[in-house]
Write a structure and sequence with these properties.
The chain is built from 10 helices and no strands. With 174 residues, the protein is mainly α. The longest helix is centred in the N-terminal third of the chain and has 20 residues. About 8% of the residues have low confidence.
């Protein structure tokens, strides 16, 4: 057992020395290249990109500088990120509340979210109906418990109570 402990200690010490000798962090050029590789795959929000750079070994200051530079060049945009995320989540059947929560978690500014996501828009009712048709075959719930089950599912998906009510009550009855 002591040989094992010595081996683990030697390995972790040499690993620490190798990381320290390499600087342990990315410089600005490496961070920029890493950010560009990330941006070629998909759009990112500024905060999300900064967080990923920090996780890769970049300092917070360098991550912020790289993100600011990419933003100034037009390569990084919270508006494009929000537009793309909203489009993809809508196609997957997510509602406005769930999308809004995800954007908040990713650190997108509230004014950008409001610009691209109209929670009370009429087009969300059609989205709820589309999700209902896909999940339940367009069948109107026959019992109160069936209706409650469908409503819970739609609520989990991120639709508002009003949108759910309109989708589950096609003739306007409660």
């Amino acid at each position: 057992i002591s040989v094992h402990n010595q081996l683990v200690q030697a390995t972790s010490t040499s690993l620490y020395v190798a990381i320290t000798a390499a600087g342990g962090t990315m410089d600005a050029a490496e961070a920029r290249q890493a950010a560009l590789r990330m941006l070629t795959r998909r759009e990112h929000g500024r905060k999300e990109l900064e967080g990923k750079l920090i996780n890769k070994g970049c300092t917070a200051d360098i991550a912020a500088q790289v993100a600011a530079g990419l933003e100034a060049e037009g390569l990084l945009s919270d508006d494009r990120f929000v537009e793309a995320l909203v489009r993809v989540r809508r196609q997957r059947g997510c509602g406005p509340l769930r999308i809004q929560k995800e954007l908040q978690q990713k650190g997108v500014a509230e004014d950008v979210v409001e610009r691209w996501l109209d929670v009370a828009g009429d087009d969300w009712v059609e989205a709820v109906k589309r999700v209902c048709r896909r999940k339940y075959g367009g069948k109107v719930p026959k019992s109160l418990s069936e209706r409650a089950k469908q409503a819970r599912f739609l609520q989990y998906r991120g639709f508002t109570f009003d949108q759910i009510r309109q989708a589950l009550n096609p003739r306007g009855r409660d």
